[in-house]
Amino acid sequence: MNRFIEKLKQGNAYLYLIPCFLIFGVFLFYPFVKTIYLSFYKTDKLGQAKLFVGAENYTDLFTSEAFYNSLFVTLIFVVIVVVGSMLIGLIAAVLCSKAFPGIRFFSTSYALPMAIASSGAAMIFKIILNPTIGILNKLTGLDINWINDPKYALICVAVLTAWLNSGINFLYFSAGLGNIDDTIYERASVDGASAVQKFFRLTLPGLSPIMFYTLVVNIIQAFQSFGQVKILTQGGPGESTNLIVYSIYRDAFFNYKFGSAAAQSVVLFIIIMLLTLVMFRVEKKGVKY
Q: Which stretches within the chain are classed as H helix?
């Protein structure tokens, strides 16, 4: 009897999880399943499935030069954003790792990008890069139409995104630096280690767990970047900034090809999932050795 009552109590505890599962089901699982479903159909302008075409949407994607260009542009964008945002966050965290007058002001300044909406930052950045009234051309004496030149447009969007992502990276690395024992640096100083040697042989190894986590998060965020592309370049000039996320948006809401957009979404999900699994596998092998 007592066992029955205990099992009943345990069963009642699971009832508290029902609201959580309902929210996940409505806002996560259902859209995910619906996206996979639509990727096998031709749809009308309202996004309703009308004609089953099997893998035709995927076949069209993998025979499309525009899709491969979108993947290539996205790859370059992700590399620039991830490397740039992690470097900025790491350098800022190292600079603020020691106490000095005004440390709180600088720490707040370095963390500020995480509190700024990408759309608002993109609007300000668009004014800064304006070829006639923009402050960048006036300070440098150049005459470049930054966001309308295919050579610079992708770099401009990537630099903005890297800065936006650097704020959260600064907090991650600051927390990681706080967990490194100061006595290690003291012993290294006694042994005559320079600041550069301390950084590469003590700081970076001490940050390796948080650095791996930060790398995974930054790659996922970079693949999902949208707002700054929409405001700054709208995928142009030409196809130079047509990231895969913006390509999905354009196919769905401009060309009304919801089936093609759904197929691209599934491909993007698979790419991110595979990259994440590979990174976790590499990290585990690194730990073993």
A: 2-15, 18-24, 30-38, 56-62, 65-95, 103-111, 118-128, 135-140, 153-178, 182-190, 195-198, 204-223, 227-232, 244-253, 258-288
CB-based contact 165:113 (threshold 8 Å): yes
Is the peptide bond preceding residue 19 cis, with omega within 30 degrees of 0? Answer: no
User: Tens of pLDDT along the chain (289 residues)?
Assistant: 556 556 655 666 677 778 888 887 888 888 889 999 999 999 888 888 888 998 999 999 999 999 999 999 999 999 999 999 999 999 999 888 877 777 888 888 888 888 888 888 999 999 999 888 889 999 888 888 999 989 999 999 999 999 999 999 999 999 888 888 888 888 888 888 888 888 888 888 888 889 988 999 999 999 999 989 999 999 888 889 999 999 999 999 888 899 999 999 999 999 999 998 988 888 777 654 3
User: CA–CA distance from 194 to each of 177, 186, 200 (Å)?
Assistant: 18, 11, 10
Q: Which two tokens stand for residue 215?
A: 């790398």
What distance separates the 2 farthest-apart alpha carbons in the chain? 85
Distance CA 78, CA 140 (A): 27
**CATH number assigned to the domain with residue range 58-288, chosen from the 4 options 2.60.40.790, 1.10.3720.10, 1.25.40.10, 1.20.1050.10:** 1.10.3720.10
